[in-house]
């Protein structure tokens, strides 16, 4: 069922129940109504949050800049439709904490009127820098969930002698089929995006890896690449987490990314397939990233399907479009069931990172009773990173976080393969997520105490400086007083002498 013995290029992984057939055969639904209100967080990417440039009450057009990117690693956000800026306020984020983040609220006018779009005469004649600049100003980020600003990665390609662009079309998470449908329906546009990315990076060739459970997408992409021999489309085995960059890269090239390194260190840059489509739209159509295809599934929706949704739409509205029965839902997940985030509320916006909205019932998330470990080592065999999940969990249980770190905790990608195969139903990945959270807290506490120490040191230095300055000032005053006194005495002596001379 699983293992790394069959192919040396495949490490670990599991055959998870797919649940893809519910949506894989249906075309991407069109006709999603423009929501009355859209909630666009200014932080939808790795890096610094964007800074709003619009004011409350201002009329805006579809595609207009709402917030500009700040710093080298950041991305702008744009208006998904026309209307009026109703507010700029804190609003719950699509995150397990649902903590509020800065959000631009748009009241749509129903016109969906585009701002003027700039389209180059021949996009394939653009130079690399212009391509990167256009991708950056369109707010394109990695749509596989990583949301790293794509322009930064493309520029890295130019600086680091990249020979291969790897397009990750693994989509290995159960339920999710949005990339599959995109490839079936928009293969030509995706290939145009790949060609532009190659040009932007100055790289000679691209590889596209597609799991072999998507034969129609594979065929569509092969057909679209027929005239481009430098873009090779390959099937990879269906085995979760094949969509993990390192696994896909290892399988397709036989190369390993160094433990603390990046794919660029071995001449490869990895982008998600939906990102290539967003690049096509940014450059060939001049459209910023203001919508995305989302898989809506789970047994609590009567009409599971893929829907193209404006960024900022509330998930509750997307679910309602798919006949959501809220009473049946036991868990709401953004992303896939293995690595996605469980959300406490559905009134949170769809963001660029959101490739799935799953309304799962109790039967779908049933967690059987935990039994004692039987030391079968299935978790070890299933781990794609090559870790010892059981050993790490034992250390975490007794609060030996450093020992778990020594065993590789920081390399764990929280894929859940170990938990999935465990015959004793031990929720191993929960331990690792908890421990990783503790490590972050510890780092923050260390950082805080370092900051506090620095502040105390600075204060002490400041006080010492003030004391020395006060002493110097006192010294100066004393010297001035002494000088004044001496001058007075000299003057008095002169006057006395003058008086004495007069008397004589
Ligand atoms: S898979 Fe489960 S039962 Fe088997 S060794 Fe790992 S933790 Fe123990
Ligand atoms: S969750 Fe971590 S330890 Fe478990 S299989 Fe995935 S990478 Fe390995």
From TrEMBL:
Q: Which GO terms describe its cellular component?
A: plasma membrane
Q: Which intervals of the chain form a coiled coil?
A: 456-503
Output the InterPro entries linked to this UniProt entry. Answer: 4Fe4S_Fe-S-bd (IPR017896), 4Fe4S_Fe_S_CS (IPR017900), Ion_transpt_RnfC/RsxC (IPR010208), Nuo51_FMN-bd (IPR011538), Nuo51_FMN-bd_sf (IPR037225), RnfC_N (IPR026902), Soluble_ligand-bd (IPR019554)
Q: What class of enzyme is it?
A: translocase
What keywords would UniProt list here? 4Fe-4S, Cell inner membrane, Cell membrane, Coiled coil, Electron transport, Iron, Iron-sulfur, Membrane, Metal-binding, Repeat, Translocase, Transport
Q: Which cofactor does it need?
A: [4Fe-4S] cluster
Residues reported to bind [4Fe-4S] cluster 2: 383, 412, 415, 418
The subcellular localization recorded is: Cell inner membrane
- CC cofactor note: Binds 2 [4Fe-4S] clusters per subunit.
Which positions does UniProt annotate for [4Fe-4S] cluster 1 binding?
Answer: 373, 376, 379, 422
User: Main localisation, per the record?
Assistant: membrane
EC identifiers of the protein: 7.-.-.-
**4Fe-4S ferredoxin-type domain boundaries:** 361-393, 401-432
Which GO BP terms, alphabetically? electron transport chain
Record-level Gene Ontology MF annotations: 4 iron, 4 sulfur cluster binding; electron transfer activity; metal ion binding
Mark the transmembrane ranges.
Answer: none
PROSITE patterns found in the cross-reference section: 4FE4S_FER_1, 4FE4S_FER_2
Per the record, the similarity remark reads: Belongs to the 4Fe4S bacterial-type ferredoxin family. RnfC subfamily.
Which HAMAP family does the annotation name?
RsxC_RnfC
**Biological function:** Part of a membrane-bound complex that couples electron transfer with translocation of ions across the membrane.
The annotated subunit structure for this chain is: The complex is composed of six subunits: RnfA, RnfB, RnfC, RnfD, RnfE and RnfG.
What is the name listed in the Swiss-Prot or TrEMBL entry for this protein?
A: Ion-translocating oxidoreductase complex subunit C
**Species, as recorded:** Methylomonas koyamae
